[in-house]
């Protein structure tokens, strides 16, 4: 259909010019009318010939452009802002921990040795020692009392950012009360749980309620609290496992006898 239209659109004007050519030469009066008639016929019969989309050159250019267009996923991606984020929380915390004063860092790490050594000794020897577990709970109660009294030492100086008000001074007495209560339990499990609760309360006070502490101190407090809590829980877990094994071995000995 399209070639048929092109044929008549492009060739009719030229035929009209050939036919009307001699008449245009011989007849001067009708020269203007015949030329205007030929232009009107050319404009009326083939409007599609001037449309750019049906031009062969333009169609070919569009095809080439579509052929050379690269797919979206093959284009080189520019680095986004999300790819260049700040360091993570763990990396920032380790950096802050390195910035802490050496005496505070080394003394804090040394203070964790009694906590870690108790479950480690029980796990290596495969025996539960009630005396070591009791010593660990007592040492945890003493540590909690020290952490609670540290608030008083921070709030009492005149140039301190923390005021010696009821909130700061009264909150510092709650962890020692929990530690004191933990030493009254005859069962090590109850005492260890009480010490863990006191450690959590002291950490909440130091990190959340008093933001004027330096960052390195807060990171050190979080690390120390995690190590102490995990050590106490490990002692309780070993107590349960090793006591069950000891009970089973005794039952086997009674059966053999």
Walk me through the structure.
About 75% of the residues lie in helices and about 0% in strands. The protein has about 260 residues and is an all-alpha fold. It folds into 2 domains: about 1-65; about 90-255, no CATH class. Helix 1 packs antiparallel against helix 2 (about 30-45) and helix 9 runs antiparallel to helix 10. The longest helix has about 40 residues, at about 215-255. It starts with a helix and ends with a helix. The model is unreliable at about 10-35, about 45-55 and about 55-75 (pLDDT under 50).
What tags apply to this protein structure?
about 260 residues, mainly alpha, 2 domains, about 75% helix, elongated
Secondary-structure topology with pairs:
Elements: H1 2-26, H2 31-45, H3 56-68, H4 89-98, H5 102-111, H6 113-125, H7 130-155, H8 166-171, H9 174-182, H10 188-209, H11 215-256
Helix pairs in contact: 1-2, 4-11, 6-7, 6-11, 7-9, 7-10, 7-11, 9-10, 10-11
Brief overview, please?
This protein is mainly α. The chain contains eleven helices and no strands.
Percent range for helical residues? over 70%
Secondary structure tally: strands: 0
Question: How many domain regions?
Answer: 2
Per the principal axes of the C-alpha atoms, what is the gross shape?
A: elongated
Low-confidence stretches: 10-35, 44-54, 57-74
Beta content: under 5%
Helix tally equals 11
